[in-house]
Sequence to fold (261 residues):
Amino acid sequence: MTEIDTSVPHSARIWNYWLGGKDNYPVDETAGDAYTAVFPGIVTIARSSRAFLGRSIRYLVQEAGVRQFLDVGTGLPTVDNTHEVAQRYAPEARIVYVDNDPLVLAHARALLTSSAEGATAYEDMSLYEPEQILEAAGGTLDLARPTALILSGILGHVADHGVARDLVRRLMAGLPSGSHLCLNDGSRGTDPAYEAAQDGYNETGAVPYFLRPVEQIEAYFEGLEPVEPGVVSVPLWRPDTTADGAQPQPIGQHGGLARKP
Fold:
């Protein structure tokens, strides 16, 4: 198994730290704190992204009737992982996680829990192998039935937008009518402070993550039928009512849900 280097910060562990998880090391906390010193709003972005994922899965299960999920680039397990949300509302739901990070692989056993009625599986594969991902997922999922493809915060790691669009297209091509794409990524045009902080982070030599204009995020959904309200800043996507009636505020993270006709 690949050795995990705990001497340098790691983006998945930093994200885990911002989400309040425990799968991180002092070096990740230091890097995460340095980022938040420049842009404190990153914690809101991380947690708002996770909350969007939960609301979209709830919609898929309760309103769209989806019972199969393919979560590519899943990252480290924290709270309300895809299988936990899906099986909370539909215990028979089946979930395949895909990642090729040795750190995530080391924690995969934490993901591989399931209700007795459903199933979860983990595939150690790269986003850049869409056909192989689909073939492997077919061992757990029935890909003749509607499936939700989840791409949460992963496409920003693909430097070329055209390549990223092609990967989405190839993954959706292997799923039948009635399937859905659930996608969110960091965006430009809403929060200049976030953009400056992320651009600065990318220049440190860390694995870069590219924020994209909203129209480029919308382009991932080409040919699909958008679920209202379309691609929006994630706190604005079907927000839950809060006890104090506070209105959600837009952040530099956009996403949406769409159905394959």
